[in-house]
Amino acid sequence: MRFSSTAFFFLAAVSSVIATTGDKCQVEIVRAVECDRKTRKGDQISLHYRGSLQDGGKQFDTSYDRGEPLSILVGQGSVIKGLDDNIIDMCIDEKRKIIIPPDFGYGSVAVGPIPASSTLIFEIELVGISGVESPKSIVEKSKSDASKATNPVKDAITSKISDAINAAKVLLSDSDSDGQEHNEL
């Protein structure tokens, strides 16, 4: 009985973190850059982007073809939520790939060449932050530093699993300490 109780708590902890993070955007830092000033809410920024559909990979828009970056205010809702939330804390010249589920994109509404309920992929490059000088040289972070920054879901799951294991150990040690078998759970 103890095993099934422990397994239940373990699975409940893991499923709770998956349920709360499963529908969020996935961010991969393609080129990590070190800087003193990162983007923050309210900044006027310029960025290049390439947007495509996850299903089939068809490109639906890009600023590169127009030869001019997009200029937006960060955190003001001028772009879809999945982009707006994930352009914060970027350095000039940093590149990210963001996978945006429908709830953080256009939802159940078709927009131009984008079908309803589409998962979107945006490749973005921060070109500038208004009022912030571009660095004279770009210092790229190592791949290991970049991968550390791109694993919040993995870290959350690992933390919840660790918490569940510790809770199971306490549960087992408490029930084993008096020599009696307890099947209350």
Report on this model:
This protein is α+β, with helices and mostly antiparallel strands and 185 residues long. It has a domain at 24-147: Roll (Chitinase A, domain 3). It contains four helices and eight strands. It has helices spanning 2-21, 81-84, 143-149, 152-176; strands at residues 26-31, 33-34, 44-53, 59-62, 70-73, 95-100, 120-129, 139-140. Strands 1, 3, 4, 5, 6 and 7 form a six-stranded antiparallel β-sheet that branches. Strands 2-8 form a two-stranded antiparallel sheet. A hairpin with a 5-residue loop joins strand 3 (44-53) and strand 4. Helix 1 packs antiparallel against helix 4 (152-176). It is extended, with a radius of gyration of 22 Å. It starts with a helix and ends in a 9-residue tail after the last helix.
What are its keywords?
disordered N terminus, EC 5.2.1.8, PPIase_dom_sf, 30% helix, 24% strand, extended, isomerase, PPIase_FKBP_dom, Chitinase A, domain 3, rotamase, 185 residues
Summarize the structure.
With 185 residues, the protein is α+β, with helices and mostly antiparallel strands. Helix content is 30%, strand content 24%.
Unreliable spans: 1-21
- Summed over residues and divided by their number, the pLDDT gives a mean of 81
Number of strands: 8
Which class of secondary structure composition applies to the elements? alpha+beta
The multimeric state of the shown protein is single chain
Order of helices and strands: HEEEEEHEEEHH
Beta percentage is: 15-25%
Name the shape in a single word.
extended
| CATH fold field value of one domain | Chitinase A, domain 3
Highest-level CATH class of one domain: Alpha Beta
Radius of gyration: 22 Å
| Cα-to-Cα separation, first versus last residue | 8 Å
